[in-house]
Amino acid sequence: MSGKNPGMDMKTLRALAEPNRKVIIELLRDGPLTVGEIADRLGLRQPQASKHLKVLSDNGILEVKAEANRRIYKLRPEPFHALDAWLNSFRRVMQERFDNLDDYLRELQNKEKS
Amino acid sequence: MSGKNPGMDMKTLRALAEPNRKVIIELLRDGPLTVGEIADRLGLRQPQASKHLKVLSDNGILEVKAEANRRIYKLRPEPFHALDAWLNSFRRVMQERFDNLDDYLRELQNKEKS
DNA sequence: AGGGAATATTCGTGTCAAGGAATATTTATA
DNA sequence: TATAAATATTCCTTGACACGAATATTCCCT
Q: A27-65, pLDDT tens digit by residue?
């Protein structure tokens, strides 16, 4: 009941774990952009840019607004909140005040008595 | 100078973006474990577990301590700090007080006057 | 209406990584 | 010392996916 996990989506992680997509996201940090602009700044050809943008949208990381000819992509906050929540479940790890291998070793010793 | 990026490692993201490895990490959140324990709790065969653990160690996410027969794996705090720092660079996005598509559209309009 | 942007989609190809099975290595134990 | 436990490594196969090139679609403008 209390220890319910944030439950980070694999979709999000997999979508972010690609170099070009990561750069796209970092670009969009500073505001929405069109496909063409993104392709330009990344040195990508338009089709590849579109494909990556599709992956990112399909996974809920981006949202699109059609403005006539152009499609304007922007970041959605939700996945970042989710990632943040997940990351928070590692607070103990980050504070390094959690392990003490020694405790664990002692525990192992005990189990061996069976 | 001031706007230096956190510079999130691709290695870290790629390592996390695999279901089994993500579960491994979530397991180790609660303390160090041996290969066998990890394999058991994940329903993985030992070789696969070892391989995933190798990927995670090679990317600096885990560290190993050899204790006789066993190898005890535990999380390293650094990559989580890095991820946290990177995520923080998306604060504006998470607060949703950043875009206003309208501003961008106006900007587009201006550029079109050339 | 027609030509040209801006964007999306399809298809084929190559690469890379995860899984399975088998084997090697180290250490404990009888 | 022989055997078993714990872990790592190798080889092979298969599936996913990123890229390139080409094409389709939608919309603007003259």
A: 999 999 999 999 999 999 999 999 999 999 999 999 999
The structure tokens listed for B57 are 């160690």
* Three-class DSSP category at A72: strand
DSSP, collapsed to helix, strand or coil, labels residue A24 as: helix
Using an 8 Å CB-CB cutoff, list chain B residues near A83: 87
DSSP string, B52-110: HHHHHHHTTSEEEEEETTEEEEEE-SHHHHHHHHHHHTTHHHHHT-S--HHHHHHHHHH
Tokens of residue A99, six digits? 């392990």
Q: How far apart are CA A89 and CA B75, in angstroms?
A: 13
Residue for token digits 């990351």?
A: A87
CA A66 remoteness from chain centre: 25
A-chain residues near B83 (CB < 8 A):
87
Using a CB–CB cutoff of 8 Å, tell me whether B68 touches chain A.
Answer: no
Contact A99 B8 (CB under 8 A): no
pTM of the complete model beyond 0.90: no
B86, B13 in Cβ contact below 8 A? no
Class assignment of domain A10-111?
mainly alpha
